[in-house]
Amino acid sequence: MEFQTSLSVDQAVNNLRLAIQEPPLAIVDLRTKLHLAGEVGPERVVLYREHGRSTWYGQFEGRFTSEGKATYLTGRFVQKPGGFVDSGAGFLIVWAFVLAIVAVIRWPSHQEGGMVAAALVAGTVGASMLWYHSRNTRVEVRLLREEIAAKLKERGA
Prior knowledge:
The protein is an alpha+beta fold. The chain has helices at 9-21, 29-32, 84-105, 113-153; strands at 2-5, 35-40, 45-50, 59-67, 70-78.
């Protein structure tokens, strides 16, 4: 991913530093206003959007380069491990497979309908958790890309 701006490297770094230093306006805004956070320098840029205590959505890692009158911020989006979401979803999906296998093995007793239903519910919830996490990550990358591009276009911030 590459962002281009007509600003000098120093001004582009300054704009992004100011963007990550903007505090939320009020305590109520802590839940609704997303805040750009991270560290910004000419050689290393790490940006992510602060979500209260949760920052597992992903981040941008890159560096500034200059070529002629153009300044480039080159880097890539890195998805941080989901931790609880991924491990919880993984557990539910494995549990669904275990329940399904047990239900199939014990099927002749005709009393395993509950296990089949539990396997379907656990598998569905686990898969939904993984889908929700990946969707949030894609949306977060798009929003972060738009915010970085907007901050690099501003002059005299």
